[in-house]
Design a protein that fits this description.
With about 190 residues, the chain is mainly alpha-helical. It is built from 6 helices and 2 strands. Helix 1 runs antiparallel to helix 2, helix 1 packs antiparallel against helix 5 and helix 1 packs across helix 6.
């Protein structure tokens, strides 16, 4: 009789542990998704600022059309992608295009003196800072999820749930897979 109670107690403890671990994975996945949505909000804000930047620069720098066209194309490419590895590359290309436009603007003193340009430049810098902060939070959540998936015995519950490691979002758009990729929906 005592052995049966002990066995039942052990089964209940293991079951309770499995439920707690399952809930922990659900929480971690939600944190990763939520922190990605915060980055996505800032990326969209940047997308919204770019047409204004193009318009202002175009008014002052007529012969920089190719550069502005590249910026517009980079924006469109970044906006259409959803899977993290491809989107990270597109975001990196967009970062480079924005930085090129801003650095080339130094050759146009009247543009540099434009209130609109200065406001856009400030808003872009603030947005980039928020993206960087969001990236740190997202990558921290990814690290927590991936660590839980790789440590025993959590790896058992994670594999039973079909959870794949999430991908990190790097500082210049590079992706470091956590031995898996993440499909991040907008």
């Amino acid at each position: 009789m005592g052995g049966a109670i002990f066995l039942c107690s052990m089964v209940l403890l293991i079951g309770a542990w499995a439920v707690v671990k399952h809930n922990n994975f659900v929480n971690l996945r939600n944190l990763v998704a939520e922190s990605w949505r915060q980055i996505d909000v800032e990326l969209r804000r940047r997308y919204d600022l770019i047409p204004n930047l193009v318009r202002v620069v175009e008014a002052y720098a007529q012969h920089e059309r190719n550069m502005l066209l590249l910026l517009t194309q980079a924006r469109a490419a970044a906006m259409e992608l959803q899977a993290l590895p491809e989107r990270a590359t597109a975001e990196s290309n967009l970062d480079q295009a924005v930085n090129t436009v801003l650095s080339r603007a130094e050759f146009y003193p009247t543009l540099q003196a434009s209130r609109q340009f200065m406001d856009l430049q400030r808003e872009l810098a603030e947005t980039e800072n928020r993206i960087a902060a969001g990236r740190r939070i997202y990558n921290g959540n990814v690290r927590s999820l991936n660590t839980s998936l790789k440590t025993f015995p959590g790896s058992i519950i994670g594999s039973m749930m079909g959870i794949e490691p999430a991908a990190y979002f790097g500082t210049h758009g590079e992706v470091s897979p956590g031995n898996g990729t993440a499909e991040l929906k907008r």
